Every structure is written in C-alpha cells, then in structure tokens.
C-alpha cells in the first residue's frame, strides 16, 4: 500500500528529473493546500481524494510541463469541490495558476447531455475555445486520463457515459494535439467499457501469445541491432511492441478480419540521433527484410498535421509475419509522444503576453505543408484561438455553434425561424437578458416565445450577427408585411426614378411594361415594390435596370421602324417594276450572315431557332419588331401562309442565300431509334465520317424502349446535312431522322 506522502515524493522525484529550477517548496505548499481543502473527501475506491490531484500532477509531470502546470494540476479540483476560491489561489500561487485552475473548472462544468454524432466536433471545438491557455486543456486531458484509469469503481452507466465521451471528445483532442501516448491509453480504457467482450478477447489473446510474441520481437530486435552495430550508427535504440488493443480492434472492425488475419500486429521503433541516420537505418532494415510495396511513408519529409514525424515501413519477417518499423530521431520521438506538450516545454522561459504569440510555433510548423489536413488543423486552431465562433448550449444540452458576438436573436433563429419570429424574451444561465446580450462559450440559452408576439422588429437585423438570422428576419418581413412593403418599396422606387428623370407613366405603358418586368425578373410591379420594401432589392438597382430596358426598347423601336419603311419601299419598287413589265429582278444587296434580304441592306439577320435553315434550304424572312429579319425554312410550319397573322402579313419578305455564305451553320437533328447499346458511338462515328461538328447532344429514352437523340450540329450546307442524315439512317435500329421545325 503506497501512502499519500510516498506518492507525492514520487511526483517530486519526477519533477526534479526534468526541471532542476522547479520551486519544490511552492509545489509542496500547493499539495498541502489541496490536501487541506479536500479534507476528508474520498474517492470511490476508498482512497483520500488528494490522491487524484497528485496522480493528475504526475501525468502532467510525465508530459514534462512547467511548474505552473504542476501547481494548477494539484489545485485543479479546489474551486469546484472545496471552499477555496479563485482569489485565494491567485493570492497564494499567482494569477496565471489561478487562471489555469479556473479554466479547468469551467471545462469540468460543461455537461454533455447530447451524444449525437454531429455534436461531437462542436463539443471538441467548444473545449478548445474555452481553453485560453493550452495548459488548461492539457491538464483537463490528464484529469480525464486518471479518471478513466480508476473508472472500475464507478457504476456501469457512468462507465459507459464517460467512456463514450472520452472516445468521442478527449481522445480526438489528444490526437489533434499530438499526444500519441495519452491518446492510445484513453482509447484502450474507453474500449474496455464500450465493448468489454471484444476488449477481453483481444487482451486474452495478446496475453496468451505473449511469450511467442516476445520471442519474435527479440529476434527482430537482435537482427536489427547487430546490423546497426556493424555499420556503427551511434546511439541507436531498437525496441518492439505489440500494437494497442484499440488499434487492433479498429483494424479488425474496419477490415472485417479476425485478430489472426491482421496484417501488422507488431511495431518496432528505431530511435537515432540525426535525420541522415534515419534514412541509413531504413536502408539497413530493407536490406535485412523484404519491404511490402506501397507501405513506406515518409512523415519526416512531410509531417502529419499534428506535427508527427517518422519514417514508416512494413516488412515481412521469418515465417511470413509482417511487422511495421518506425524510424525517427529522439527529438521527433519526444514530440510524437507528447505533441504540443513537448513544444510547450521548449517554449519555457520565453514569456509572451496574449494568446496569439503562444501559437506562433504551431503556425510556423504547419504553414509550409501542402497537406489539406494541415490547413484544416491550422483553421481549427485559428477558429479556437482567435475566437471567431462561440459555442452555447440549448436547454436540452445540444451545442449550437454561432459567430462570435452572437446574441439571443441569432440563437433563436438558428434553432428555428418560428422560434425567432415568436420570441418575446431570452434567458442565459437562468437569468433574463436583453436581445443584444453577447453570448459566451458554455452559456445555456433559453428562448421564451409567445403566440401573441408581434414578430421581429427591423432593428433585429442590425443586432443579429449571423447572416442566417438576418435572412430569416428578412423572410418574415417579406411574407408578413406585404402591404407595408409595397407602399414603402413604391415610394422609394418612385423617388429613385424621378432622380433618373423618368416618370412612372413611362414604364407602365402596355407595350413596354412586359419587357421591363422581364428585365427585373418580377411578375408584377407590386412584387418588385414588395422586394424593395423588405430589402431583397435596392431601389437604385431596380431603377437602373428599368432605365436600361427603356433605352433598349427605344433603340429597338427605331430600328423596326426603319426596317418597315424599307420594306414598304421595296414592295413599292417591285410593284412599279411589274407594272413597267420589266423582269422582276431582286436587287442583290450586301449580305449579312450569307443572307440577302430583298430591298434591304445592312439589316440584322438571325436564323430562326424553330427550323434552323442551312444553305441550300428554301428560305423566307420575317421582319421582327426590333431584332431585324428572322430567316425560316419555307417548309417551317411557322412560315406557312395559313399560319400568318393578318396584321403581320406585310412583314413576310423574300430572302435568299448569297454567294458569300459562311463556313458553318448551326442546325438540329432528331434521331428516333429502338434503344440498344452502342447507338451513341455509332451516331458519333457517322458525324465524324461526314466531318460534321456536334455542338450539343441530348438523349431521352422512353418507357417502351425508344431512344430519342437531339443533336445540335454545324454543317456547311443542306447537301452535307442530307449526307449525314442518310448515314445516320443506315445505322441499325435507327427508325427516323428528322430536322425539327415549328
Ligand atoms: Mn479532477
């Protein structure tokens, strides 16, 4: 039986082992202070409570943390569990130590009642965000580790709950901080309670085969040692270990294998002085054993995001047993085992104020890495350290993640817009607060709602920090206050219009309103006013768009008028020519896009989408309002005389292909086939044989087994088009090849 005093002396010895300048008198007085304050308190195993803080300090000392960390570890439960106060600790042991103890206390007070998967990352971030000083979280992890080591005295329900928390929150944090040793111990201890059957099976099998394993490992160790001695690589240490139960468990689970089938149960480490020695050792190992291809990883050249550095390789030993070898320097090893803590040790003596500088080395270490994970790691540290987020609880215990400076309004809308819209009051940690109250990490927020609520006020949009809340408030105004919005929007729009020298009458004329509405993308003017009213569109933007559209309409009208006058002139000339019994020779004028429009020069020409004519087709033109002449195929249903609206009669005009046609014209084909595999390839082949470009392709299949291809292609003329249509028609299963029209 080890006495409390003996345990404490062991701690002192550990501290002396790495920190000769530690103030052991002060550390002892912290120990005595804690022992006194915890008084008669007992652990569940029947030992005095003070053994717990001593053990936590022991773990912290094994991480080689500074004296302040040791003091804080010894005192970590004083504020929470005894009549000691922050002020008292600050007076006796300094403000820094009191701050760390206070930080650990706050983390201890966080109660997790939700265990949903998506909550876990938020919880981890919350713990980070709450730990201003990295030592807070390091001590909290040490605290949890000791509690897990002594978990057997707890009730089964508590064991499961704590094990789950440890697996989901603390082990990942330990991993993120590069605390490999603590991470695997936390995982193994959690597994013991989360899946006792599997844990027992793995440990039993490991125990049973222990002798066999030991023999294998010492043989490999000897072989490597002998060769290293031959090559006189100085100060090399070689040792082997069997992988940890949780890492075996994970592999069995992920690879669906039994323990016997697992690849690498064994891991060897070779520690050397220098990086060149690492690569030398790698050469030696690969010389003795056959390496497995694709298993070599160089984490020295490319460290892992959590700063881990090592060479990894997997080899096959005698009897075909595979094993992993990790090769690294002693310095890397310290960082791999203790991560952030090791760096903390290096940093000792260089005191800087403020949080940011403390993390400078993390950024320096990581910024040259291209690894995406690394970036994520930097980001999550930034998020945590520069606090652009705040984490609060719902009364149910869910963590809600909001931007820093968020208020109860942001909280309410992040739960549901109905909560925000009916909010009449807010409570934080049980006390009523104003709507502009700034939330803090760990706050429990409760929203009071009422059916009689008036809804949000426009001021809320200024108070809310999250864009989510602001947009939901805007939505509410859009829906609930339509009349008000329309009136407000109209007033604002009309004054803007006046500013541009326009009147409302100018835009409401029946021949301009439709295209104006189209330009601003609203069905009616009221809708546009409403949008301006609730803030979805600014009145300047709306008025500018309307002005642009008006200018466009006026220009188009002027052009259409010119075209009509010209058409009338041409008709008159034709009539005069006929009366003079002269042959009706259409005067060829300058062509546009390979089209000559009778009697008109320089007019805009476009090819109608409905029938997409190509040179060689018989064509006819139609004078549109504002967009020049649209050219159709003569056989297009839209160009049939029967189809002509009387008022448009005078707009149909003769057009013809000129001699200077362009190289290619866009047109379309529709191919109807009985569906089969390979159709697409055959059609594509036909296209390329005929040197036709495909610009677009669209297939849909019908339920009765047909496939209909819509092809957009470019051809030189109707001859080439006919050729390609014939080619396609020859393909088996093709039923019909059409040129769509109408
Ligand atoms: Mn504790």
Overview of this structure, please?
With 742 residues, the chain is α+β, with helices and mostly antiparallel strands. Among the domains are: 186 residues, Hypothetical protein af1432 (Orthogonal Bundle), CATH 1.10.3210.10; 93 residues, Ubiquitin-like (UB roll), CATH 3.10.20; 75 residues, no CATH class; 75 residues, no CATH class; 74 residues, ACT domain (Alpha-Beta Plaits, 2-Layer Sandwich), CATH 3.30.70. The chain is 52% helix and 15% strand. It contains 30 helices and 21 strands. Strands 1, 2, 3, 4, 5 and 6 form a six-stranded mixed β-sheet that branches. Strands 13-15-14-16 form a four-stranded mixed β-sheet. Strands 19-20-18-21 form a four-stranded antiparallel β-sheet, covered by helices on one side. Helix 4 packs across helix 7 and helix 8 packs across helix 10. 33% of the residues are buried. Manganese (II) ion binds next to loops.
How do the helices and strands line up, and which of them pair or pack?
Elements: H1 4-18, H2 24-38, H3 51-62, H4 67-75, H5 78-81, H6 86-93, H7 95-109, H8 117-130, H9 134-149, H10 156-176, H11 180-194, H12 196-208, H13 210-230, E1 237-242, H14 245-255, E2 266-272, H15 275-288, E3 290-291, E4 297-298, E5 311-316, E6 322-329, H16 330-347, H17 355-358, H18 360-366, H19 372-385, E7 389-393, E8 399-403, H20 408-415, H21 417-421, E9 423-428, E10 431-433, E11 445-449, H22 460-463, H23 467-480, H24 482-499, H25 504-508, H26 513-520, H27 525-534, H28 539-579, E12 595-597, E13 605-607, E14 619-623, E15 629-633, E16 652-653, E17 655-657, E18 665-674, H29 679-689, E19 693-701, E20 706-715, H30 718-730, E21 734-738
Manganese (II) ion is lined by residues 52, 76-77, 143.
